TrEMBL record:
The lineage of its organism: Eukaryota, Viridiplantae, Streptophyta, Embryophyta, Tracheophyta. Gene3D superfamilies: Ribosomal protein L22/L17 (3.90.470.10). SUPFAM superfamilies: Ribosomal protein L22. GO terms for molecular function: rRNA binding; structural constituent of ribosome. One of its GO terms (biological process) is translation. Belongs to the universal ribosomal protein uL22 family. Part of the 50S ribosomal subunit. The globular domain of the protein is located near the polypeptide exit tunnel on the outside of the subunit, while an extended beta-hairpin is found that lines the wall of the exit tunnel in the center of the 70S ribosome. This protein binds specifically to 23S rRNA. This is Large ribosomal subunit protein uL22c. Its main location: plastid.
Amino acid sequence: MLKKKLKKIKTEVYTLGQHISMSTHKARRVVDQIRGRSYEETLMILELMPYRACYPILKLVYSAAANANYNLDSNESNLVISKAQVSEGTATKKLKPRARGRSFTIKRPTCHITIVVKDISLDEYIEVDFLDSFRWSKKLKSKNKYTAMAYHDMYSNGGVWDKK
């Protein structure tokens, strides 16, 4: 008698944007609106919202969808934003000259934005025969060693984004 075994497959990919030059509060205001929504609905929301934080988040959502298409072979209509979080980055510091030879520091806050996209068409568990489990594990592991992750660095991307 063959034993059946449940094997978990990967259904989520993520994109990380680092050192984005804006406050975490301003980015969280936008990210809270898109969390848990479908991919197409998210694109419409981000294109119509009047905030400056929408543009870098829109680029990250596009990148997460491209990662899901490449790594999971998933369709864009099946994607859902499962997690979206904003964490605080390092503050860039400048010196502004003041009166009588003194200087004043200007702190520009940065943030790191993580967008996790889930494909709802894929089942999380597949049933595998006990004897075939070695073949499945080799197929799943050898597909792509490097998981879906893309870094979007504000400094290497060509400067500061447009300000509205």
